Request: fold
Amino acid sequence: MSAPIEDPPLTNLRDRLAAIATLDAAALEAEDIAILGRKQGELTGRLKSLAALSIEEKRAQGAELNALKVQFEAAIGVRRVELADAARQREGAGVDLTMPGREAWRGTMHPVTVVIDEIVEIFGALGFSVALGPEVESEENNFGALNFAPDHPAMDMHDTLYLDPQGAVPAEGQRLLLRTHTSPVQVRVMREGPPPYRVVIPGTVYRNDAFDPSHAPAFAQIEGLAVDEGITFVDLKATLAHFAERFFGRGTTVRFRPSFFPFTEPSAEMDVACQLCAGQGCAACKGTGWMEILGCGMVHENVLRNCAVDPERWTGFAFGMGPQRIAMLRHGVPDIRHLYAGDMRFLQQFPSVGS
Amino acid sequence: MNASRAWLEAFLRQPLDAEDVAQRLAMLGAPVDAIEPVGADLSAFVVATVTKVRAHPDADKLRVTTVDDGSGSTWSVVCGAPNVVAGGRYPFARIGTTMPGGMVIERRKLRGEVSEGMLCSARELGLGEEHDGLLTLETDAPDGTPVVTLLGAGDQRLVVDVTPNRPDLFGHKGIARELAASLNIPFRLPEIPGLAATDVPPPERAGDSGSTGGITVTIADRQGCPRFLAGVVRNVKIGPTPDWLRNRLAAVGVRSINNVVDVTNYVMFELNQPMHAYDADALRGAAVGVRAAGSGEVLVTLDGSSRTIPEGALVIVDGAGVIGVAGVMGGRDSEVTGATTNVLLECAAFDPSRVRAARRALGMSTDASQRFERGTDRWGAVDAFRRAMQLLASVTAGTIDLPTVDCFPAPSHPPRIFLRPSRVRQVLGLDLDWREIERCLVAIGATVVSKPDDARIAVDVPGWRPDLVAEIDLIEEVARIHGYEAIPATVGAVRPVFRPDDTGWAAARAARRLLVAAGLSEVLTLPMVAAGDPAAPVLLNPLSNDHRCLRAALVPALLTEVERNWAVHTGDVRLFEVGTVFSVSDQPGAAPRETQHAAFTITGRRQPAHWNDDKPRAWDRWDAKELVRQLVDLAHPGAELQVEGESWAVHAPDGRRIGHAGPVTADSPPWADPVFAGEVELGPMTTAHAQFAPLTMFPAVTRDLTLRVPAGRPVADISTLLVQRGTRHDLRAVHVVDEYRDPAVGADARSVTVRLVFRNDQRTLTDTEVDQATGRLRTSLERELDVSLRSS
Ligand SMILES: [Zn+2]
Reply:
C-alpha cells in the first residue's frame, strides 16, 4: 500500500474549512452553496465522482471526503449561530427592556361560576355527577313532594314568584312558579329510576325578595343528594367536613348545628370556622367565630316516599349552599349587587385561575 | 323571639352568661342573632365613699361632700340628696361619664362650690323609680369597683332565631327547658313577687258550651277551636303594672299598656299561650264564643281601623256580633279600659292554618298570630290559664269569680309514637344506649313508657311539640340532645353510581371556556326583565315592572351592562353570559320552554394599546361572526350562518332560529365604539370524538386569483362553487385573502382575492396540473357566476 498522494484540491478545501470561522453572513451562505450545494457544491461533486473509482480508491478517498463534509456542516452551523447571536446583540443594544410587554385582554369567569365549578369538582371526585333541572317548576315539585305542608309557616321562608297562568286554570299543585330552591331536581332525579343516587345540582333559584346588600331576587344554589343503602348521619358529616377541607383548605374546622328544613330530618346547618378571624370572632361572623355555609340533613322519609323510594331500605342525605354568599366571603365583596352587574372594573378583579 | 336573660335565670335559678346561652342555643338549633343590653350601660359607674359632708354655704338643700373613688384623688361633689352621710358608700359618676339620659358629667360650679362628679340615685342609674335619695351600696368592695359587679349587669335581650317547627321556643319556658337539658340542671316556673300562695282551682270542664261568672261560653266551630277556657275577675283596679312585670316586658321589647294587658303578655312570653282580656261588661248578651265568620262581617280592631273579616275566618263573638279575630287581634269595643271593673280572660287553642289564613287575608301579623300559626299547646292551656288568672287577680286586686270554665268538647291526649332503636342506628349511624335515648327524650319533656328490652319504645310526646308526629321526629330529637358534635364523621365506603353529567353542563362549561379564552368577561344578569318580548313568560307577582317577565334572550341585558360601563367611562367592554332563557309554550298553561344560551357583547379596542404598535383596532362585525361561528360549532356542528339584513342568523335543521350575530344599537355616548353582539342556543354537546386525519408529507400548492365580482354576487357563492368543482382537482381549501373596492374596477363591483390550496396526499402535484385545474375553475366561475379575473 502506497502512501496517499496529497491531493491539492483537498488541501484547498481544508484551508477553506479553516476560514469558515471568519466569514460574514453573506459569504457564509455563498460558501455553503459553493461547497455543499446540491448541484454545484464542490464537495458534493467530488463525492458523486467517487462512484467511478475502484473499491479500494473509494475506500481511501471516501472516508476522507465524508469526514470533510461533516466538518464543513458543523463549522457552517457553528458560524451561523455565532453570526445570529451577534446580530441579535447588535439589534438589542440600547433597547430599554423595562418597557412594558404587549398586553392582551384577559377573559374572566364570574367569581360565582368559579365557586360552583370548584364545588362540582370536589363532589365529582366523591362520585357525584351533575344533574340539572328546569327553573320553572310546579308547586308540587317545589313544595309538595318536598314535604312542605301547604299552609305551614315554613312557606314564609320561600317567598315565591308565580307565573301568570294567562287564563289557564292549573290543576291542584300544578301552578307554575320559579323554583325557590334546587331541591325539585332531587325529586326529578329520584322519580327517574331507583337508587342509588349521587348528584350535585347547580342552578338558579328565585325568591320574591327585593335587592339589598345581602339579598337578590335570583341567585345560584348548589345542592347535593346521596341516597343508598346504609347511608347515615355519620356519612353526611364525613362527606361535608371533607368538602369543607377541600374547598376552604386543609385543617378547616366545621361544626354541625340542628336546624329545620321540611325536606330533611334530622336537619343541620354546617358552619365553617370564620375565614377572616380564624374563629376568634369578628364583625363578619357577628362575633361567633363561625360562618354559616350550608344547610343539610338526612333526606326526609316523606320525600323518599313521595318519590317511590322505600325509606326502610334506602337512606340518604342532602345539602345545599349559596355560591354568591361564598364568593362574597372569599373575595370580600360587601354587596351582593356587584355580582349582578357587568362593570368591567369589577369583573376584571377576578382573573380566572385553573378552570 | 326576644328572650330576657334574667327571665331565663329565674327559670333555672342560677346566673347565666348571655354568650354561653347563645352558644348552647345555637348548638340546639335556635341560634341567637343578637345580644342586646336592656336598659342603661352602667359600666362607667364606680363605688365611692363619702369621707366628709359639710353644708353648702349658699344653699340650704345642698351639701358639699368629699368623695374617695379609689383613684388616689378625692373629689369635691355637691349633692342634694337628703340621705348622704359621711362614711356612706354610693354609686359615683366621674367627670366624663355619660348618664343613662345622655347627659355628660362635667366639672362645674353650683352656687360657687366646685362639683367634680355626681353621686347617683337608683333612678339616675335607670334602676327604678326610687329617687328620694342616693342608692346606698352595702358592700365591702374597694372604692373604684364598677357598680355593675355589685348590682349585676343589667338584663340582656337575646334575639333568638326560632325555626318554624318549634313553637315552644316562643316562650321562656321552652327556651329554659332547652338550656336545662344542655346544662343538665332542673328548671321550674319563676316565683312571682307578691303572689298568693294558693293556686287557682282548676276550671270546670264543659263540652261545646259552658258558663262562668254569668257569661255563656260557646264553641260553634270545633275544628277551628278545640278548646276554650274563660274566667272572670271582678272588681279589678286597672292601673300601672308593678315594676318587676314592667321590666320583664321591657326586656323582651313589649311596651306596658295596663296591668291586665301586661299580664296576658307576660304569660304569652312565659308559656307561649296568647290570651285575650275583655271588659266583661262590654260583652253584649253576656256571651262569648267562637265561630266561622259569615260574609261581610266587620270588626273595628284595637288599632281603630274597621276591617272586613274574610268569610270563614275564625272569629270571637259576643251575643251581638264579632268582637275579635281568633288568634290575631281583638276588637276595640270590648277592650279593657281604665273604666273596666270586671275582666273576662280568654285562653283558647285555635287551628294554626285557620289563624294563618286569617292573618294573611287581613295582612296583619301579631305576637299572638305568630304563635297560634305555629301551634300552641292545647293540653298545657289549663296551666297557662290558671297562672294568668292568679296573676291577674293579684296585680288588679280583683277576685276570681269561681268556677272558671274549660270548654273542651273532644278531649284528647298528645300523641304516642313508637321508636325503634334499630332505626336510630340506621339513620344516625350511632349505637346509642337505651338509657341515652331515654335521657334525650325525657329532656324534651316526653314520657318514655316502655322498658329497656322492648324492641320499640313507646313515647308520649309533650303537648308543646306539635312538630313531633313520627318516629323520625324523635330520632332528630335524640340526635339534637345527644349532640350533633358527638356524632362521628368517619368516611365510609362509597359505591360508585353510574350517571353521566347532564349534557347541558358540559355545553355551558365549554362555551364559557371559549369566551374566556377570547378575552371576554362573564357576567350573571338577573333573569327577570321588563315586558317587551312577546315570547317572554309573564310573572303573576313580579317584584316590579322592571322585573315583570322572564328573559327570552340574553343580549338585551348585556347591552344594559355595556351602557352601565359607558356611564363610568369604560369604553372597552367585553361581556358574555351563559344562562337559561325562556319562551312561552304554545299550549296554554304549559311550562315555558327553557333553553341554555351563550351570548356576548363586544365594543372598544380588540386589544390593549402597546407603545410599539399602531393604534389598536376596534372590535368589528367580523369578530362577532367568528365568535358565533365557534359557539355554533360547539353546539350545532355543521350549522351555517346565513345573512339576515345587516346581521347573520343560524337555523337548526328543524328551521328554528338558534343564533345570531351582528351590530347592535345601544344608547351610546358620542365617544363610544360600535357594539357587536351574538347569541347562540347551546344544545347538548356532541359526544363523538374527532377522528384523526393522516398528516401528509406532500406539499400544498397555492394559486391566488384576484376576481372581479359583480354587484350582488356574494363571495359565498364563489367559494361554494370552487369547492364543488375543485375537489376532484385536489382543491383542498379556498381562502378569501383580500377585498378591494376601487371605482376603477366598476361602479358597483369589487375585486376579491381568493387563495386556492391544492394538495394530493399521495404525490407532489406538478405546476402544470395545478395550472390546468385553476384554468378549469376560472372557466366555471366565468360561465356559472359571471365572475372573471380582474383585468389589470
Ligand atoms: Zn370572624
